[in-house]
Amino acid sequence: MKFKAEIDVMPLDALLDPQGKAVTSSMKNIGLDSIDGVRIGRHVRLFVDAVNQEEATEKVEEACKKLLANQIMEKYSFQVEAV
Predict the structure, then answer these.
(1) 56: burial class by Cβ within 10 Å (0-12, 13-18, 19+)?
(2) Nearest-angstrom CA–CA distance, 63 and 60
(3) How far apart are CA 36 and CA 3, in angstroms?
(4) 11, 32, 33, 55 - which has most CB atoms within 10 Å?
(5) 4 and 75 in contact (C-beta within 8 Å)?
């Protein structure tokens, strides 16, 4: 079966996010004062062949831990669905 994973990788809340801070400042500069606390991360979509959803989830988890996220500085979340 083929599965699609949608993965979000974000900096840990305890760490500074220079990109997010720059965007937050820019929001104020263009008159969007009500927007605050911007955090910049990345979104990854991938497809995986697996026997079932459990196996697909395990493969995506392994990919996140080994390659897609630096667990010292980032957190991740994902959803896996059959396609």
Answers:
(1) buried
(2) 5
(3) 35
(4) 11
(5) no
Alpha helix (H) residue ranges in the chain: 18-29, 53-63
- The Cα 70–Cα 83 span in angstroms is 28
In one letter, which amino acid is 64?
A: C
Domain count, the chain: 1
List residues bridging with 9 in a β-sheet. 42, 76
Name the amino acid, one letter, at 43.
H
Taking only the tens place, the pLDDT of each residue in 18-45 is 999 999 999 999 999 999 999 999 999 9
